[in-house]
Amino acid sequence: MAQMPPDIAEKIAAIGRMVDPPKTYAVYTALHDKEPYPNAVVTRDVKYGPDGLQALDVFTQDGASGRPVLVHLHGGGFERGDKHPAGTPFGDNIVLWAARNGMVGVNVNYRLAPKAQWPSGPEDVAAVLAWIKANIKSFGGDPARVFLLGWSAGGNHVASYIAFPQFQKADASPVAGAIFLSATPFDTTVYPMETFARYFGADASKYAALSPMPGLVKSQVPTMIAYAGLDPPAIEAQSVGLIAALKKAGRHPRSVFMKPHGHMSGGASIGTQDTELSEQILAFVTTGQ
C-alpha cells in the first residue's frame, strides 16, 4: 500500500481542517489522466429521473461482464457539488479507477437544496438503484453486487437510504455494501444541523427523526467507514461515533483512518500512486466486508 507522498502531505497539511476544494484540487489535478481516458468506455448524462440533476455517468470497459458496480455520490453540503466539476478530473477519477480495477463505475448527480429537501437524497438513491437494476447489465455490471460510495453529504444520502426501509423498493438493486468517505451527518441529534438547514429544514424539532444512525445500527449491510485526520472535527466525530455504535451492536465495519488526509483529499487521491484508500475500497468490494 503506497502512502501519501511527502510533498503532497505537506500541501494538504497546509490546507488543514478546512473544506477547500479549489486548493485540494490544485494539489491533485496533474496526477490524473485527462480525457479521453485510455482503457475506459464512458457514457455521460444518462437520465434516471425527470429532474435535470437526476443524471449519471457510467464508466466501464469493452467486454466487461458480471462486474461489481461502484456508485459514487459527491459531497457539497447538500446544495452544491457535481459528479464531474467542469475542467477537473474529479468525480471521474473515482469511477475511472473503478472501471480499471474490475468494476463498473457509476457517477451520480442528485437534486440539491434548497429546491430539493429531505428526503430527496434517499429518494434519488432509490431511483439510481432502480435504474441500475434495469440497465447495468448492458454496461457489464452485476445488479446484485452494487456498492454505494457516499462522500461527505453524499454519505448522508447513502446512510438515509439504508436506514429508512420506506425508500427500499422491489424494483431497486440490493445494496451489497456501503462506503462512507468523510461522510456527515449520521447522528443528527449531536451534529450542528443549522449548517444544513436548507436541506433538512429549519424546524430543529424534526432533526432527531431524520437521523440515520439508529437504522444504520440495525442494518446488516456491510459497511466501510473512511475518515481523515484533517477532517473538520465535527465530521470526524460522526465517523468515529458510527464506528463505535456499529461495534457496540456486534457489527464489524471496515474502518480506515487516513491520518495525513483532509476532507477533500481522500477522494481526490483515488487513481493516484497514493493507494491507501483505493486499496481498501477494492478489498471491501472484492470480499464484501
How many E strands?
A: 8
Helix content: 25-40%
Query: How do the SSEs run, as a string of H and E?
Result: HHEEEHEHEHEHHEHEHH
As for the number of domains, it is 1
Derived structural class: alpha/beta
Task: Provide the CATH top-level class.
Answer: Alpha Beta
Summed over residues and divided by their number, the pLDDT gives a mean of 98
In DSSP terms (H or I, runs of 4 or more residues), the helix count works out at: 10
For the largest sheet, list the strands in their spatial order.
1-2-4-3-5-6-7-8
The CATH topology turns out to be: Rossmann fold
Could you walk me through the main structural features you see in this protein, from its secondary elements to its overall organization?
The protein is of the alpha/beta class. Strands 1-2-4-3-5-6-7-8 form an eight-stranded mixed β-sheet, with helices on both faces. The chain has helices spanning 6-15, 21-28, 92-100, 120-135, 153-163, 197-200, 213-218, 233-248, 265-269, 276-287, and strands spanning 41-47, 55-60, 67-73, 104-108, 141-151, 175-181, 223-230, 254-262. 34% of the residues lie in helices and 21% in strands. Helix 8 (233-248) links the parallel strand 7 (223-230) and strand 8. The mean pLDDT is 98. It has a single domain (6-287), classed as Alpha/Beta hydrolase fold, catalytic domain (Rossmann fold). The chain has ten helices and eight strands. The two termini are 19 Å apart.
